[in-house]
Design a protein that fits this description.
single chain, 225 residues, mainly alpha, 8 helices, elongated, disordered C terminus
Length: 225
């Protein structure tokens, strides 16, 4: 049975302090909400005084910004959904998991910047477009690696899992949830060297992959007494 220290935290069998996840989830939700909202700042209204031709043409000219916005909004939205799913499995969190979660959030907060960069140079062609796509993919790869590290760390520590969660089922999802994602994002680095628009499309497809749950939420046959 877990021990309670004088501060009210739950201590695991190895005396490593752990705590409830409420504050971590609240903080993470706030950061993700800010990051996903910042994406809209890259969408610009065509200035009336500088308009050349119909407004519809000016709006259509901004399609790279819309494409990057939709893709990144989907990515951050899916990160939020999967973050929620992961924390449904976690009953307690320790210091290392907290720092891994911060690493994930650090990468997510950088996505609005890389989105603006890619939308600006998406159709530029040449080295500039490839560089923007590489920066975008690198941040996404960092996000995927941080998420994988958090999930893998928790999956291998049953003491952190919520009561009744089957550790074997959680560990069985590591490949589908973590390894596959990292491999896909590494592939986008290669695609970025070929075509920036194709790279953005690849990220959209990866986002659609994670729209479907890649986590097994098995419950232990016998709940701990």
């Amino acid at each position: 049975m877990d021990r309670i220290d004088p501060s009210g935290s739950v201590a695991d069998p190895h005396n490593a302090q752990v705590s409830e996840t409420t504050r971590t989830e609240t903080f993470s939700d706030g950061v993700l909400a800010i990051a996903i909202t910042l994406l809209v700042l890259d969408l610009h209204v065509p200035a009336r005084d500088t308009l050349r031709g119909p407004l519809s043409h000016a709006l259509a000219h901004e399609w790279p910004s819309y494409a990057a916005y939709v893709t990144s909004f989907l990515v951050i939205g899916i990160i939020w959904v999967n973050h929620h799913a992961v924390f449904e499995l976690i009953g307690r969190i320790d210091r290392i998991a907290l720092f891994l979660n911060l690493l994930l959030l650090m990468c997510v907060v950088a996505i609005p910047f890389t989105t603006a960069l890619l939308s600006e140079y998406l159709t530029a062609g040449g080295r500039a477009a490839r560089t923007a796509a590489l920066v975008y993919s690198t941040v996404m790869l960092g996000m995927s690696a941080a998420f994988a590290a958090l999930y893998t760390y928790v999956a291998h520590r049953p003491a952190l899992l919520a009561d009744g969660v089957d550790p074997v089922a959680v560990r069985a999802s590591i490949v589908r949830f973590s390894a596959v994602g990292i491999a896909l994002y590494v592939a986008t680095l290669v695609i970025a060297l070929i075509s920036a628009p194709l790279c953005l499309l690849a990220h959209l497809i990866i986002g659609l992959y994670y729209c479907f749950s890649q986590i097994r939420t098995g419950r232990a046959t016998h709940a701990p007494e």
